[in-house]
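Below is how a single chain appears once it has passed through the pipeline. First comes the sequence as given, then the structure the pipeline wrote out for it. We keep one example in the README because the format questions we get most often are answered faster by looking than by reading.
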Amino acid sequence: MRHTAKGVRGPGFRGLTAAWAVSLVGDGVRVVALPLFTASATRSPLAVSAVAVALTLPWLLVAMPAGALVDRWRPRTVVVAAHWVRAGVTGSLALAVHTGHATVVVLCATAFVLTSAETFADSASQVLLVELAGPGELEAANGRFVALETIGMDLAGPLAAAVLFWWEPAACFALDALSFVVAAVLVSRVPDVAPRRSRGDLRGQVLQGARFLVRTPGLRSLVVAVAITSFAAAAVNAVLALYSIQVLGLAEPVVPGLVVCMAAGALLGAWLSPRLAARWGAGRVMVGFLALLAVAFAVFGLVPRLPAAVVACLLCGLAAAGWNVLSATRRQRLTPGPVMGRVTSAYRVLAWGLSPLGAGLSGPLAAATSIGTVYVVAGSIVGLTAILLARPLARG
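Resulting structure:
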C-alpha cells in the first residue's frame, strides 16, 4: 500500500469522499426515479412493493458472502469493479425505459443486481474509510459521509430527478450510469489497502462475522434496533411515491421535493449528532433519535396534508442521519480491522434482513387499508423499539 496521510483532511480520504459524492448524486436520481417510474407506469401498490423487495433482498442473500470475500480482496479493486457493474446495469435500464421494454420483471431484476453489487462496494468502502480516516477521527469521517450522502442522495439527486423525469425518465438512469463511471475513475486513484489474508473456508469466515455480532453486547443491541427500524423504514419508503401522488395529490415531478425536505433535516442531524453525543452520551442521543423518527412516521400517516408531510420529512431526515452517524461509529469502534468486511456485511444482513419483508408487506397493507396506515404502523413499531432498547443502547 502506498503511504498516505491519514485523517479526514488527508488526500486519500478526500479522494474517497469525492468518489462517494459523485456516485451518491447518481444514486439519488435513481432512488427517486425507480419507484416513481414504477408508480407512474403501473399505479399498482403491489408492483411498487415488488420492486422495493427486489431492491433490498440482496442485503439478505448476498451481503454476508460479499463481506467475507472483501476481507480477502483489495478493497479499492472491489469498489471499482462494483461501480463498473452498476454503470453497465443502469445504462441498460435507461435503454429499456427509453424503448418501452422496462416491465416490472425488468425493474425487479435490475434492482436486485444493482443492490447485489452495492453489497460488495459498501463493505469495501467501510474498510477504506476506517483505514484512511484513522481511528481517532471516525465520528468526523462518518459525519462527513452522512452529510455527503444527504447532499447527493437526498438533495442534488432528487432535484435532478425532478427535472429529468419531467423531460425524459430514461435520462435519470443514464445519469446514474455516468456517475458510476466517474466514481470508478476517482476510486482507482485512492491509496489501496492490502488485504489481510484470512485462513479457513468461506463459509466459516461468513459465520465468524455473525458470531462476533451476536457475542458482542454493544453490537447485539445495536443490530436489533437497526433491524426493526429498517423493517419500518422499508415499508415507508416503498409507498412514499404512491402516497405523494394519491394522498397528497402532488404532481409526479414535485414528489422529489419531499426527499429534499428530508435532506435538509438530515444535514442538521449529521451536524448535531457528534455534538449532542459529546454532551449527553452517544447511547442516550441514539435513543432520542429513534423516538423522534417514530413521531415523524406517525405524523406523516395521521395528518395527510402537505404542510404536515413537510415537517414530518424534516424530522425523519434529522433523526435518521443522527442515528446513522452514531450507530456507524459505534460499530466501527467495536470491530477489529481484520474482520471489518465480514462483520460489516453480517451487520447489514442482520440489520437489514427484515427490509424485504417490510417492503413486501407495505403494498398488501396499503391495498387492504390505506397508505397512511403503513406510516402509523411503522411509527408505532419504531417507538416501541426505542422504549424496549433504551437501556441497552444507552449502556453500549
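The chain has one domain: 11-191+202-395.

See the next section for the split statistics.
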